[in-house]
Design goal:
Blueprint (H helix, E strand, L loop, with lengths): L6 E5 L12 E9 L4 H4 L2 E3 L5 E3 L2 E4 L3 E9 H11 L6 H17 L20 E4 L2
Parallel strand pairs: 1-7
Antiparallel strand pairs: 1-2, 2-6, 3-4, 5-6
């Protein structure tokens, strides 16, 4: 059973702590308490360029932060795998709304990625764009 919806803070490339033009898009999922095991389990995503999924996890007494920092190509690869019906619910809770965000923020770049349309939108994480 999934707990309360996480808040996902998204920082597009060139905004904030990274150098402009590095192409890194950072998303930080913030959970009240512990993150679901499916989200908090680290693994290496094995595509054209290997990368860790998620990038970083930090747990405090009252919240857990899960950080994802990838290039647009890595995000495409990750989203293609993590929004399918067979993906775990905790992952879809974050990745489907991120896909919707990327479709809006980068028109044409993510439109061809199919996702689990049967997953309850009421469970989607809240997306907040960092300025």
């Amino acid at each position: 059973m999934l707990q309360a919806r996480p808040v996902v803070l998204v920082q597009p490339p060139g905004e904030g702590g990274r150098q402009e033009g590095d192409g890194i898009i950072t998303a930080i999922a913030v959970y009240s308490g512990e993150a679901p095991l499916s989200v908090a389990t680290r693994r290496v995503f094995d595509g054209e360029t290997r990368f860790k999924f998620p990038t970083e996890i930090s747990e405090g007494m009252n919240k857990t932060r899960v950080v994802y920092s990838y290039t647009a190509d890595q995000w495409r690869e990750l989203l293609q795998a993590c929004v399918l019906p067979q993906a775990q619910g905790g992952i879809k809770q974050i990745m489907i709304p991120l896909l919707m965000f990327f479709r809006e923020a980068f028109p044409g770049g993510f439109d061809d990625i199919e996702f689990d349309r049967g997953y309850d939108p009421g469970l989607y994480a809240e997306i907040v764009r960092l300025k």
